TrEMBL record:
This is S1 motif domain-containing protein. Residues 1-28 form the signal peptide. Pfam families: S1. Coiled coil: none annotated. Residues 91-114 are annotated as: Disordered. Residues 123-192, 218-288 form the S1 motif domain. Keywords: Signal. GO terms for biological process: translation. The keyword Signal applies. The keyword Signal applies. It comes from Rhizochromulina marina.
Amino acid sequence: ACSSIRGAMRWPAALCLWLLPLSANSWAAPRAARPRGLASVGAKEDRWADDPVAVENRRRAEANRLKQVSASTRRREQLLEVSRRLREKKRREKRERSLGENPKPLQQRERDPERRLEKLAVDAWLDGQVTRLVDHGAWVDVGAQVDGFVHISALSDGFVSSPYDALSVGENVNVRVDSVELSLHRLRLSMLERVVDEEEVVRQHGGERRVLEDISEEEQLWGIVTRVTHFGAFLDVGASREGFLHVSEYPLREMGQWAPDLFHRGQRLRAYVKEVDLELSRLKLTGDRPKSLPKIPWRLPLKTL
């Protein structure tokens, strides 16, 4: 019995000794020599490559897969291409309109020594020629060192949706000097009469206009509308800069109304200082009365003014 048990125990040990070299050789083999399945797959593909029916079936399957996957991608690319062409068309039309019907460059006007920036007087009327149109205004050559700019809100007494509808390149116009900034070499023009009496404004503020540094936030100001845009109105409040009142800051505005429906040149309004930007030299106004002040009607009757 003991001898038979010893014989049975010898067999597993002998089997392990026989399998050990085989497993060691298999793991020691290079990685490229182990996967035999790839060779069989490659051979199968080579065998299918000779079959025209199999090749056609594979081609159709790949085409159907790409068609299903890239349908949305192709649709998106088509939309992008259409939008790109529309943008190019708009830019081309805008360039043609800005250059006018005759794309040849305009003859530059002779520079008049009497029309140097330092000699131009505010509110003086000059004759000029439109040289270029942009979305927000027009550039006019008046014979000075630089062309003057007329903002879209200063083209007409009424609302102008686009400068291209009011002016054309090469047109002779009569403009008024609105302001001259020698430090910035900038000339600002207007085609409208001034609605504010400059002498009266100066007299009310002690001989000169107020600088922005002397204006504080939430201060109450009375002003006269000088320009009206689609989104708001510019008010002359006696400061060195005009204040801008956005249409959304006007408490009497109803749904769907814009600035041309609410404001007109020469209108007298009461506003409050919302923000004073000294860096950009801007004055933002609001019609909402600050909570720190007592509540009163936003606009008084004309007989009380």
